[in-house]
Structure formats: structure tokens, C-alpha cells
Sequence to fold (394 residues):
Amino acid sequence: MQDQSHNPKLTLIVAGIAHSFSHMFMLLYATVVLVINNEFNLTYSELQWLSVPGFVMFGLAAFPAGWLGDRWSASGMLVIFFLGLGFSALITGFANDRIILCIGLTMIGTFGAIYHPVGLAWLVKHSKNRGRALGINGVFGNIGTASAAIIAGFLADFFGWRYAFFVPGILSLILGVILLYILYRGHLPDVSKDAVSNPETTSRDVRRAFFALFITVIMVGLIFQSTSVGLPKIFSDRLDIGVGAFGPGALVALVYFLAAGAQLIGGEAADKFSQRQVYLYAQLFQIPIVLIAFITINYGLVLLAVLMVSLNMGAQPVENALVAKYTPTSWRSRMYGIKFVLTLGVTSIGVALVPILSGLMGSLDFLFIAISLFAVVAFFGAWLLPRDKDRATS
Fold:
């Protein structure tokens, strides 16, 4: 495609929808798994293990996806993202044994991995107010996470679990075709330059920033992964919400919908205040909240979950703005790819913690202790970030 002017509004819309789909598809199974044990004759722990390879690929495939986004076409990769997710979901929905189910879930993770390195770099390149754009984009991610639980719970309880994959899969295929048409009409050209330039940074600050971010992105990812996968089971075990998937799914949806505003706050803060300080305090404040949640067995747990998720989510646009700040445009997708190999691939350990703790302890109570430890390490990692000389504007 020819290099033309930026199209920030349409880019934000497409990136937002893609972001919501990446999280929604990855978490459909976390709710569906509550009601398929009889059909597959497997325990919750055994069924949950089938999703782990998909979460591994959600991270590991990010780097090659980012490389293709830099070297070929970011918008073209997003077409592959939508079409690949759609076909993968249909395969998952048709699964009749654990092997096909695992293959389908792994394919969802592989195609879902395209969004974060490619879509975020694409959005940053087109945005004049990066923090705001990343915050709005983050809200879409929250909506995807929240809608996964309620969509999967509703479709599984009222139509059968397979429809929890069929309906989103068909919608993703339709959106892939629509995006292909938009690209054909030339409305979203690939561009080579950022809408705004990065501030000057020293090589020492760049090295220090990426060392610190190496630590924090892993910890933040572990918190996100373990929380998003474990919450349906935690609510099901600790709260009196009846049988089936819809009750826990609805509560998880409520948590992520209420936490969505934190993405906007974090994005605006990334534009207006010290990114280091905002990121640092987001990690610090999680620690006492998670520890209180550990001993809470009433509906106050839902409010605590909202606070936990809000702090985790609010830090994400700041984190992505920090990566953009210290990374040249020409290899930003690859750098986001590396980040999400760490955030989503390495941190699939957080997903594995759910069946491990459930199998060993019979509950997920000690998941809160693990999350609090992750937050402590994330705080010290954020403290190592270079101090802002001026208010961040990138």
C-alpha cells in the first residue's frame, strides 16, 4: 500500500474491536469449562489444562506476528487475525474429544496473538494523544474480557456450550471480510511515520527502562492471566449463585465492565503525569486489596475484584505508552511482540496456576497469595524505571 495520511479515528475503531475480540475469544472457555465436564468425562482441573497451550501460543506467537506487522502489513495482519479467530472458534465448537478441543483452543491462542504486537503498534503510530488512545483501546479490551464471561455463560446455559464458540466465530469471520473491504477501498493505508515524534531519550535510560519493564510486564501479565481465568471458579466456589455458568459469568462480566473506566484514567494519566509514578502506584495499591480479598467470602469479594482488576488494567495503557516512548517506530511491532511473549506467553504460568492450585488444594484460595507476591515484585520493577525529566507526552 502507498504511504498516505494517518486515519486515527478509523484506526482506533478497528483496533478497539480487535482488542476486544482478542480477549473475548481467549476467555470464552474459562466460563464454558464449568459446564462441559459431563460431556467430556473430565474434571475441572483436567479440562482447564487443555486451554494452557492456547495461552502459551497467545504469548509466543506475538513476536513472529509483530515481525510480520513491521515487515509486511499491520492492517493485513489484522485481517488474518479476524479470519483466523473465526475459523479456530468453529473448530473448537465442533470438538467431540479432548484432542480436537485442545487443538481448537491452541489455534485461538495463535491467531489471537496477532492483535497485541501488531494492533498496539499500529494504533500508536496513528495517534496524536497516545495515552488517551491506548486508554480507550484498553476499555475495548475490558469489554472483551467482560463479554466473554457473560456471552459464554448465556449461550452455554440456554443454547449449548458449542454456541459459545459458533456465534463469536461467525461474527469474527464477518468482521474480517468487512476489514478486507475497507483496506481494498484504501481507507486504512499503512504509514511509515508516527503521527507524533518521541521525546529524546538516552541509551542508558532505554536500557534501564527495558530492564525494569522486563520485570514488571511479566508480573502484571501473571496477575492478569491468573485473575481472568480464575475468577469464574472463585465466584462459583465462594458465592451462593446457583449452578451453571451464567451466574459466575455474569459476575465476572460485571467486574470487568466496572473496571473498564480505569483504562481511560490510566491513559489520560499517561499523557498528563509522570508515567513512572502512575505505573508505580498502580502496582503498590494492589497488594493490600488482594490480601483482603483472600479472607473475604461474601459479596464484598466482587467489589474487591473490581478494585484489583481496575489497578491492573489502569496500569496497562501506561505500560504500553512506556514501551512506545523508548522504542523506534521501525521495530515497534517487534518490541511489542517481545513484550507480549513475556506478558502472555511466559505468564501462561498464571493460567497453569489455576488447575494446579485447584487440583492440589481443592480451591483457588491461595491464588490470592500468589497474586499479591506478583504485585510486590511488579512494584520494585516499576521503581527501577528511569525518572521522568518532564511530564510524559508520548
About this structure: The domain at 8-383 is CATH 1.20.1250.20 (Growth Hormone; Chain: A;). The chain has one domain: 8-383. Residues 390-394 have pLDDT under 50 and may be disordered. The radius of gyration is 20 Å.
